[in-house]
Amino acid sequence: MNLLDAHFVPAVDGVAYGLLLFVVAAGLSLAFGTAGVLNLSHGTLYAIGAYTGAELSDGTWGGLAVGLAAGTAAAAAAGAGLSAATIPLARRGHLAQALLTFGLALIGGNLLIEFFGADELPVRVPEALDSSVTLLGHRYPAYRLCFILMAVLLAAFGTWVLTRTRVGAAVRASADDPQMLATTGHSPRAVHTGVLAAAGALAGAAGVLGAPIIGPGAGTADTVLMLSLVVVVLGGLRSLWTTLFAAIAVGEVQTLGVSVAPDWAPYLLFAAMAAVLILRSQFTEPATSGAHGGGDGGADPVEWLRRRLSASFKGRKPGAGDTAPVPSEAVPTGAGAAADKAEAGRAGGRGALPWLLRGGSADGDLASRVRQAAPLLILLGVLIALPTLLDAYTISLAGSALALGLLAVSVTILTGYAGLPTLGQTAPFAVGAYATANLADAGWTVGPVQIVVAAIAAALFSLVTGPAVIRARGTTVLMITLAIGELASAAINQLKSVTGGADGLVGFPPTQALWGGEGMVDESEVYNYALAVAVVAVAVTLLVLRSPAGKLLIGTRNAEARMRASGHPVGRYLLMAHIGAGALAGVGGSVMVTVQQYLSPADVGFEIAAFALLAAVIGGNTSVIGALIGAGLIVSTRDWVASSWPGHGHLLLGVLFVAAVYLLPRGLAGLRARSGTGGRGRAQTDRPPSDHDSATAGKVAP
After folding, report:
1. Residues 337, 339, 342, 343, Cα dihedral to 10°
2. What is the pLDDT of residues 502-515, one digit of tens each?
């Protein structure tokens, strides 16, 4: 009985919290399941309602009613605006939507802070509710009981509208068959706008009513968004009742779970989210038994690369069997694809390293070599010259950009080549970073040792998490990797003896560039070390991507079913890509620690994952150099441009997100391809990339 008494109030709190999340998640589910919009700004819609309601609250029933009406209307208007913003992206898949709405969330969050202030606003509820009542022998806040009642009524009203009214029928029809809906005289676009406005209204109403529970302040929008995503994943999109039960379960974990098992509660939600997504992908995704390495019809690209490198350094000609076969139907046809394919067959007698230096061209003539190598050489020349042109602070920013660039390149490998869009690459990035910081703290300060250990640790982490990722496709991959990233963040906050918790790690010795050297403290020395590591890592990455291993990944992305039918072990290819990308991310984390000389959870959080994905999109789906340029643009916007406008860094980054989505549908590499074709390839290069788009004609963009 004492145990029940001790946990009774947290259990009831869990119901209130869960019902609040249900109202928010119902709007998110409506936006995604009906309007087809993956809205990462949904937490900002909640914050709009919360800030508005708190500002208008005056301790009276009238103030509560006015705040509820104004907050709901403001969030509904923002939802309608979101509809207008996402309609042009209808054919580009959920990845573009996620980036756009994340950028809008950054802009909206900055504007809210600018208008309402950075401090958490007090919320004044009516006097009758600002008290406690007796509930089964326990004192409990009256407002929370009232909120439970209001949330139940709101849920019942929403269910009635969706299932029993003509409006609900039109909404359901727009999700199932918009063409048929149009024949009945309804405008699918108007329904789309109405659905997103209704989703915004639900989030805004939840913000107003939930402000006394989850007050408006810094981080509120992110917390609500993440928990709502967990609810939607656990509850699914088919039934409001399953969403309700999932929301209450999440609420109980957040309150009762923290009270009963504080060490385990942070892991439960995202572990459950990942488990549900993985189980669903087992039954809904196209993977077969070969997805985990079954099948032996295709040559192993790692084995091919080992033999090719061995042949290059020994100066002998590898046999014809060294070339990994790729079925012609797996790679798009066209002049570029035919040239790449022919080169793959002829490269056997000339070695991989000369082939890389020629940029993968079929004829190997001088003009082609110069054209292929020009972006690399220009960028390398600029990077080498930076220490002589910039001040110490800007040089340190350039080093940070190189670290983020390596993370962005790892995202490019997964998103552009393997077809696995990711929001969780900060997990292996964090593994490499914390491995380096702990090595330095233990006295292992030699740079090459730190790099190798970081890469191995991150690769092992990716090996463990890879089987959970490679079976899924599209939006499911985004959600699984997001869950993995959040689990890593929870572990970082819990394992204080290794990570320092929320305080991070600082005060460890500086890195030595080589054995016997002094620790690097000068910004130019640190930058040159970071540049050397980045050059080697990018060179190895390009070597692999321009080999048949890269072609196999492109073939897997473009025609997975045909690759499987040809006997290729697609799962093995994807797993190796995941491990390699993880190792590269670990190297980036090691470089970041060396440059910064401190490490905090914010350096490896969700925001950094979104920045890396944006950098990959800015560069182009398969452009390694473009990803590095995109990372430099993000760091310069966040830390250099924003320094001239203090307090508006997120606003500027949000504008960068929005501009990149609209103006660079195929990234910088797409602009280069368009200018190179002189408009002849317009029909192909103008096509916006979807969640499964790939490089033009199977080429590897530098």
Report:
1. -110
2. 889 998 899 998 88
Element containing residue 374 per DSSP (H, E): helix 366-389
The pLDDT tens digits of the residues spanning 115-124 come to 888 788 888 8
Query: Which sign does the torsion angle of CA 534, 535, 537, 543 carry?
Result: positive
Among 276, 256, 277, 253, smallest CA distance to 266 is for: 253
Q: Which amino acid is at 634?
A: I
Q: Which helix (H) or strand (E) holds 134?
A: strand 132-135
Residue 418 CA, chain-centre distance (Å), reads 15
Rounded CA-CA distance 76/9 in Å is 34
Please give the average per-residue pLDDT across 614-637, as a whole number.
89
- Residue 525: both structure tokens together: 């020395």
Q: Where are the beta strands (DSSP E) in 504-570?
A: 505-506
Instruction: Select from 502, 505, 478 the least CA-distant residue to 490.
Output: 502
In 3D space, the residue among 430, 424, 427 whose CA is nearest the CA of residue 480 turns out to be 424
pLDDT of res. 693: 41
Residue 493 identity: N
pLDDT tens, position by position, 26-38: 888 888 887 788 8
Least confident residue range of 183-197, 469-483, 661-675? 661-675
Residue whose C-alpha is closest to residue 657's, from 98, 73, 54, 52: 98
φ, ψ of residue 257 in degrees (nearest 5): -60, -40
Q: Is 322 helix (H, G, I), strand (E, B) or coil?
A: helix
Closest by alpha carbon to 450, among 468, 466, 469, 437?
437
What's the rounded Cα separation, in Å, for the pair 487 and 427? 9
**Cβ(218)–Cβ(53) below 8 Å:** no
Convert the pLDDT of each residue in 398-451 to its tens digit.
Answer: 999 999 999 999 999 999 898 898 989 999 999 999 999 999 999 899 999 999
Report the distance separating Cα 530 and Cα 632, nearest Å: 14
CA–CA dist 702, 692 (Å, integer): 20
Question: Measuring CA to CA, which residue among 505, 472, 656 is closest to residue 592?
Answer: 505
Q: What is the 3-state secondary structure (H, E, C) of 524-543?
A: HHHHHHHHHHHHHHHHHHHH
Q: Which of 659, 630, 631, 606 is nearest to 100 (CA)?
A: 659
Task: Reply yes or no on whether the pLDDT at 456 is more than 80.
Answer: yes
Residue 338 to residues 207, 341, 392, 462, 525, Cα–Cα distance (Å): 56, 5, 48, 33, 45
Task: Show the tokens assigned to 423.
Answer: 């929001």
Q: What pLDDT, in 10s, does the model give residues 119-155?
A: 888 888 888 888 888 877 778 888 888 888 888 887 7
Number of neighbouring beta carbons within 10 Å of residue 399: 26
Q: Which amino acid is at 39?
A: N
Integer Cα distance of 623 and 375 in angstroms: 11
The structure tokens listed for 537 are 């890592």
Q: Report H helices in 211-264.
A: 220-235, 240-252, 258-260
Cα 543 to Cα 182: distance, rounded to the nearest angstrom: 51
Residue whose pair of structure tokens reads 């082939």 in the numeric block: 355
Backbone dihedral angles phi then psi of residue 295, each to the nearest 5 degrees? 90, 145
- Nearest Cα to Cα of residue 28 among 189, 221, 219: 221
SS3 of 438-481: the string is HHHHCCCCEHHHHHHHHHHHHHHHHHHHHHHHHCCCCHHHHHHH
Give yes or no for residue 532 having a pLDDT over 70: yes
CA 278 to CA 225: how far, in whole Å? 21
Q: Give the per-residue pLDDT at 369.
A: 63
